Amino acid sequence: MALDEESINGPRDSTVDVEKLGRQRPEVFKSIWAELGFGISVFSSMLLAEFFVSGFHVILPPLAKELDIPQASQTWPSSVFSLVTGAMLLPMGRLGDMYGGYLVFNGGLLWFFIWALVAGFSKNYIMLIFCRALQGLGPAAYLPGGVMLMGKIYRPGPRKNLIFALYGAFAPLGFFLGILIGGLSAEFLTWRWYFLDRHHHLCSRHCNLAARCAL
User: Fold this and answer.
1) pLDDT at 12
2) 3 state SS for 110-121
3) 23 inside domain
4) Is the pLDDT confidence value at 143 over 60?
5) Residue 123 has what DSSP assignment?
6) Is the residue at 35 inside a domain?
7) Which residue has the higher pLDDT, 45 or 202?
8) In the chain, how many domains are there?
9) CATH of the domain at 56
10) What is the separation of C-alpha 157 from the centre of its chain, rounded to a whole number of angstroms?
11) Beta carbons within 8 Å of 190's beta carbon, 6+ residues apart
12) Within 13 Å and on the Cβ side, how many CA atoms surround 173?
């Protein structure tokens, strides 16, 4: 009978240990601030992906007027970003498997930053479409890279569930923030400000992750 109780208590203890580990901070983070920095970096990457989809539709009318975009071509600047992102998700995910999520995530953010910055200085609609297409490669890289990092760092459990829930919650937040900022840019400033204003935030998040999570 004693043996039966031990055989029963053993799995229970193991279950408790697994649940406890699932609630603990991962060892890669030396402090809660390091984990917070990582979370802000990854969550904000999702926010930015949606930000540059929704907000662009708002600034398109004044942008099309200034750059003299033909009516038949006005869908390209807004759709080419999502087209390239969707087409390149699987190849970029494969690169993440080969070289690691950290490299792909940070490389995608840097690439995204560069071409969003160049897009803000577009002189004609051909240049804008080209920049938007290349900008779309950024989310195609850093979105699967961010998921790989979270999946690698966190054990299965409540803490991991919370991280992924927050990651998903930042998608609609970025969507509505893009509409808000795009509307303010188009109404009171210029469409170029929509591209240029976000870059000091993006650069700081990129450096924050690189410094705090050396995987």
Assistant:
1) 52
2) HHHHHHHHHHCC
3) no
4) yes
5) S
6) no
7) 45
8) 1
9) 1.20.1250.20
10) 23
11) 62
12) 12
Average pLDDT over residues 186-209: 65
Q: Which structural domain range is residue 93 located in?
A: 42-212
Q: What is the pLDDT of residue 110?
A: 86
Q: Could you tell me the pTM of the whole model?
A: 0.76
Classify residue 30: in a domain, yes or no. no
Q: Letter for the amino acid at 140?
A: A
Tell me how crowded residue 27 is: count the other CB atoms within 10 A of its CB: 7
Backbone φ and ψ of 74, nearest 5°: -70, -20
What's the whole-number average pLDDT of the chain? 78
C-alpha span between 209 and 215 (Å, rounded): 10
Residue 46 DSSP class: H
Between CA 49 and CA 106 the distance in angstroms is 14
Dihedral of CA atoms 51, 52, 58, 60 in degrees, nearest 10, equals 180
Structure tokens at 209: 């992750």
Give a yes or no: residue 187 inside a domain: yes
CB 149 within 8 A of CB 101: yes
* Nearest C-alpha neighbor of 90 from the set 104, 76, 75: 104
Mean pLDDT of 122-141: 89
The pLDDT assigned to 183 comes to 82
Angstrom distance (rounded) from CA 2 to CA 26: 37
